[in-house]
Amino acid sequence: MRRLGRPAQGWDRAAIAASFQITMLEGTEAVFIVVAIGAGGSGLLLPASVGALAALLAVVALGLALHRPLASVPENTLKFAVGVLLSAFGTFWVGEGMGSHWPGADWSILGLVFGFLIIGLATVPLARGRAVARLRTAMR
Amino acid sequence: MLWLRSVLTEIWGLFVDDGSFALAILVWLAACWLVLPRFGVPPEAKGPILFAGFAIVMVESALRRARS
User: Fold this and answer.
1) Which of A36, A105, B15, B36 could cross-link B41 (Cys pair, CB 3.0–4.6 Å)?
2) Minimum-distance CB partner of B59 among A91, A95, A119
3) ipTM
């Protein structure tokens, strides 16, 4: 998106479209989480919804407070970090849903983060090599 | 109808970037969920096994895309 640059005037349509897509995706995930927790028993849907709403407000507040320092982080680094965290939390919750008892309980999330980080760092050079090869082919 | 196809493709693309990768994850999830209990795998081992499968799927996907 940085490569696209900023429009001379008006709103940045690419930024709006990207934010809409990503937020819709994450919003859908949030709805699934609320529904899954709400399905756990009677009277759980309202507290789950209130929790999701509180999280939304907290995220908006954090976004307002941190958008400048976060904007200085390289885009791909941010995506990589978010991907590692989502993979770790997703694996943990899927395991919980399947009835597994994670070693160290919630602390195993840190182990999963470390594991996915190692895998990501090990496989990034593969993807980078492919990107470099494509770039060289395009330049010929 | 072309616009509808574009919308549906966009929505599908939100969730699925690499079809083979997504399918492999679903197959591994189903295997862990349905097959592991039949082998009497203890609950403490299910999580690490689940992660190990995901790790293999991720590495395979990266290798496949690197070769393509």
Assistant:
1) B36
2) A119
3) 0.81
